Amino acid sequence: MIFDANLTRNEESERITFNIASRQPHCFGGIITIVDTGSPRTIISARDVYMLKIPLTGEVGKPIKGFGKGGVSCRNVNRFKFTIKSRDNKIRSIEMPVCIVDITGMSQEARDQAFQLPSIIGLDFLRSQRLKLVVDFEGGGAYFEEIDVAPKVKNAMD
Amino acid sequence: MEERQILREFELMETGSKFISDNFGELQARYGNRFIAVKSGEVIATAPSFEEIIKKAGGSKLCPGETIIQFMPLKGEIILY
């Protein structure tokens, strides 16, 4: 099964986005994520937490750190429910652990900064869903594809 | 019913994200360092802060997925996530 992502290219920016739809109870709605294979974890941004009214109930996680000073507080949600759509319009339901950004107690400056950041699909998504990411700059496309899980059959001639 | 509803959500999201993707350079040039709200393939509001864009885009009536809120980085800025 193939799940299309969007490859955005212009003279100054290249990025891959992927649409997911939250199915958390009472928090239904779309999330446009950035595909970031440099991130080990999938992160739901402050913006999407606010817009989807996701309750900040999970255990407090380790702060998310990137470039620059400081870190962003987060909570771990062990079974975040969302769906993804395949190229042939099939819906796959997913439950996986994610970090959700928690801006409670942050200064206004830090909140403003946090709201600028998008949600991120990390390597954990690829691993848990057994997907590979294909990026075709020449063809102008990007997609996730299921890894063939059929057991390798030993050549009968061996 | 549920599946049809989800597919509809994806359709709305795809319209918005495709619009942003196709027009990223122009949007960046016009609205760099601002938040934008996109609905049905057009920019319906812009603001310098998240709180302000939420108010302008419909406040509590705002429907995530149907209205997309994005921050546009400045042209020439390299963003690392």
Keywords, separated by commas or semicolons:
heterodimer, A: 158 residues, mainly beta, Cathepsin D, subunit A, domain 1, ten-stranded mixed beta sheet, 3 helices, 44% strand, globular, B: 81 residues, alpha+beta, 44% helix
Low-pLDDT residue spans of chain B: none
CATH class of chain A: Mainly Beta
Mean pLDDT over the residues of chain B = 88
Main beta sheet strand tally, sense and closure of chain B: 3 strands, antiparallel
- What Rg of chain A, in angstroms, do the CA atoms define? 18 Å
CATH topology descriptor of chain A: Cathepsin D, subunit A, domain 1
Cα distance spanning the termini of chain A = 32 Å
Average pLDDT confidence of chain A is 87
List the helices and strands and how they pair.
The complex is a heterodimer of chains A (158) and B (81).
Chain A: E1 2-9, E2 14-24, E3 27-35, E4 43-44, H1 46-52, E5 59-60, E6 74-85, E7 91-101, H2 108-116, E8 119-121, H3 123-129, E9 131-136, E10 141-146
Parallel strand pairs in A: 3-8, 4-7
Antiparallel strand pairs in A: 1-2, 1-10, 2-3, 2-6, 5-6, 6-7, 9-10
Chain B: H1 2-22, H2 24-31, E1 34-39, E2 42-47, H3 50-56, E3 67-72
Antiparallel strand pairs in B: 1-2, 1-3
